[in-house]
Amino acid sequence: MSSVLQGFTKSLAMTFVSEIGDKTFFAAAILAMRYPRRLVLAGCVSALIVMTILSATVGWAAPNLISRKWTHHITTLLFFGFGLWSLFDGFKGDGGESEELAEVEAELDSDLKANGKATKDNNSKIEDENKKEKRPFLTQFFSPIFLKAFSINFFGEFGDKSQLATIGLAADENPFGVVLGGIVAQLLCTTAAVIGGKSLASQISERIVALSGGMLFIIFGIQSFLTSVE
After folding, report:
1. What angle, rounded to 10 degrees, do the helices at 175-201 and 2-19 form?
2. pTM value surpassing 0.85
3. How far apart are the C-alpha atoms of 166 and 169, rounded to whole Å?
4. What are the transmembrane regions (predicted)?
5. Tens-digit pLDDT profile for residues 180-214
């Protein structure tokens, strides 16, 4: 039970500081301004849950492929590496307007134009969304909006710092606790992004988030380094 709790706590803290101000966080906030929040939240959370489970599964399987001692050492190096990376990003940042927020917004705008949606009348868009909301729940669940939110967040997490850290954490901690902690953190962050929208996203200091996350990774690295593995 203690191992599950430890994995849950570490995963919750690590995922939370990694996802706040992350690319997928900003994407969820911007999408929620343009489409029904319920569909955006369902798509984003579903993608992040699937990615968390997949990452934890890879981490859980790693000790079966190579020795647990080596996976422990690799995880320790990952924590220190991500910690130094985050601290570097935090110190070099100017604390001004989020560049990542502007980048995500520009990408979504270009995507809308490429699909011919940028020129549509806003009133017709609202009418279409209202019609979709009147459909049965299962039909809504597989709407284009849900799939768009799912794909943006799912592929946005591939190779991301939080994904690699989840793999490393699941290799060193109880994978069930890691999955639970990751899902709770993803749900909290994504819900805040969807409800708060761009106004909340633009107020987040990426510098503070990066420095906080870097310190947390360093702490996890030190703890992992001091933990002996047979």
Report:
1. 20
2. no
3. 5
4. 39-58, 70-88, 137-156, 176-196, 208-226
5. 999 999 999 899 888 887 666 666 667 777 788 78
